[in-house]
Amino acid sequence: MKARKDIGNSLTGRHLFLCELAGALAGEKVLDLGCGFGWFEEHALGRGCASVVGVDTDEVRLECARRQAPDASFIRGDATALPVDGSYKVIAMFDFLEHLPRDLVPEVLRNAAAALDEEGRLLVSVPYRGLVSTLLDPAFYFGHRHYTVANLSALLEKGGFSVRRVMYGGGMWEHLSMILLYVFKWVFAREMPFEAFLEKKRRAEYLPPRLSPRSTSATMFTEAAKRRDPGRPGR
């Protein structure tokens, strides 16, 4: 049975965690790579951003995003071909890098560095690579990559960024919810049961954000700045 595209398109504790860590967006020009159903565009507009552009390769997701945030701009395209005018104050890559072909990641990061203002911020979230968090991610067995702070920092530095801060969130309820989402979305083509109860538990695992990881941490959030000497090789 084929899953409907709108299953799972609702804000969760992870999304709220990322929104809060994105901080003040008022007056800023925002670019969101892998925008999905447009949740961050809606949030950025609500925070008073100057403009927000969402980029995705899937037209069905973009149709959903346009309904979610009609005042945002959306582009169907590849993240290796960005508008690289250096004018964006914030570039978001939420749950994005782990889905890219591995060999495209350096090019995408270099293009993002070119698109970012000199005083801008790159916001990245990826699955954290802990023993429990990796083993309990169904998508990991189909190529869904997980990261440690060391290997993500190395990738960012080679792409022209320097890491400012790292935080962690999520736990066992987040993992259980994701397993159920996969099962009910792709097997039964419907929303998972007990969603309100599970979401209450998930949100508690993201607040407050943690500065150090646990073996069960689900998400790693990294804020990076444009490196002043992008030609220097990464350490």
Notes on the structure:
With about 240 residues, the chain is α/β, with parallel strands linked by helices. The model has no long low-confidence stretch (mean pLDDT about 90). The chain has one domain (about 15-225): Rossmann fold (3-Layer(aba) Sandwich), CATH 3.40.50. Helix 3 links the parallel strand 2 and strand 3 (about 75). The protein has helices spanning about 15-20, 40-45, 60-70, 105-115, 130-135, 150-160, 170-185, 195-205; strands at about 30-35, 50-55, 75, 90-95, 115-125, 160-170, 220-225. It is globular and about 45 Å long.
CATH-defined superfamily: Vaccinia Virus protein VP39
Number of helices: 8
Q: What fold name goes in the CATH topology slot? A: Rossmann fold
- Largest β-sheet summary: 7 strands, mixed
For this entry, give a set of tags.
alpha/beta, seven-stranded mixed sheet, 235 residues, 22% strand, Rossmann fold
Which helices and strands, and how do they pair?
Elements: H1 13-22, E1 29-33, H2 39-46, E2 51-56, H3 59-68, E3 73-76, E4 88-94, H4 105-115, E5 116-127, H5 131-135, H6 149-158, E6 161-169, H7 172-186, H8 195-206, E7 219-226
Parallel strand pairs: 1-2, 1-4, 2-3, 4-5
Antiparallel strand pairs: 5-7, 6-7
In short:
The protein has 235 residues and is of the alpha/beta class. Helices cover 34% and strands 22% of the residues.
